[in-house]
Amino acid sequence: MELSNKTARQLFAEVKANPSRKRFGFGEKAILVNIDLQKAYTRTDLFKTAYQTDPRQLDYVNELAAAFRSLDWPVVWTNVAYMDSGEDAGIWGTRTDTPDSLQNIKFNSERAELDDRLVVDRQKDVFYCKKMPSPFFETQLQSLCVWHKVDTVVLTGGSTSGCIRAAAVDSLSRGYRTIVPEQCVADKHESYHFANLTDLALKYADVVDVQEVQDWLAKQ
Length: 220
Known about the structure:
By secondary structure, the chain is of the alpha/beta class. 33% of the residues lie in helices and 15% in strands. The chain has seven helices and seven strands, in the order αβααββαβαββαβα. Strands 1, 2, 3, 4, 5, 6 and 7 form a seven-stranded parallel sheet that branches. Helix 5 links the parallel strand 4 (152-158) and strand 5. It is globular, with a radius of gyration of 17 Å. The chain starts with 7 loop residues before the first helix and ends with a helix.
């Protein structure tokens, strides 16, 4: 194992600066999957489980969503929420049981609500309540991708080290070109965030500047 005294942020910067790093690239048609941009994870003023990396994250997500809708390409929003019993969280919900615990994000609670700053289209957009990290797990997302004949998945939301990573692995495993706009994902701590961006960029996805995604969409 190679050892280093560099921070996760520094290591990611080195990966980004490597011009020889081959990309998967964009395909012909994409789906935008916005993962768990709900108040439990976005409202740092309300919940200690929330986090912020780029202060303009939600603005960028809204811009991407608008661009996708203008192309008549699918826009997906996910959240997590559970029964009062928490049994639908399965083994994932057994490690802790505090008011801030995952399985205590209940249906119809404020923690489960999408952030009010998001611009959603309740008629055109697709909404999934997921139970596990990946939005592909036991939802209709794969069928939606097939229906829309997409070959590219653009991921936003959080957390980078959890649900974004899980989504990227599942997306690549299903044969999709997977794009992670750097400014559109967030995590609780910069170490987790940048370490996972590095791993995603090296193995599972193209981690790119959000402007690159916007420029590609503008050309479609």
